[in-house]
Amino acid sequence: DHCGMCWELCPGANDNASGIAVVLGVARALATSGHIFDRTLIFMGIGGEESGLVGSKQYAANPVWPLDQTIGYLNLDCVGVGPNFHASGGLSYPELFRPIKEANDQFFGKELRASIMSHAGRPRTDAAVINRTGVPSLSFSSYGGSGGYHTPADSLSTIWPETLRSLAAILTVAVGELAGGNL
Length: 183
Hints:
Elements: H1 13-31, H2 54-61, E1 73-76, E2 84-88, H3 94-108, E3 112-115, H4 126-131, E4 137-143, H5 161-178
Parallel strand pairs: 1-4, 2-3
Antiparallel strand pairs: 2-4
Helix pairs in contact: 1-5, 3-5
């Protein structure tokens, strides 16, 4: 993300090393949980969003798992600054959002807002590109803190480690449920 239209060196800690950190945390937790899941789980990092949604367009055209058998796509973009979370698409896809909201409400109590899927008409996020294929998609971000967005100030010093841990834990529980693992 941070290699898009910024003409200065942008470390990209929040946009989007934070999302990759959470993806890796969830993948590690589920892979070592000992549970056998009913559904296939795919964890991937998609590059090139700021350069024209290159990675998500490539995946949409050449998925590693059939899109008509994909129950959902969770996008994590700028999830490391601030204590609160937003799920774009949560109101559009309540069946996908429900286990996430329930895990948060039961175990964590973070402020978690939801909205309809944004940018569906003119995709500006990887989630919107995948959503256009017919796959229900949610795009998570955090808010309530200050950091640099598309600037050199997007550095590790702005990241809230507890926010990353909280989102990884919420998604581990929810993805486990969505995959039929009953964590």
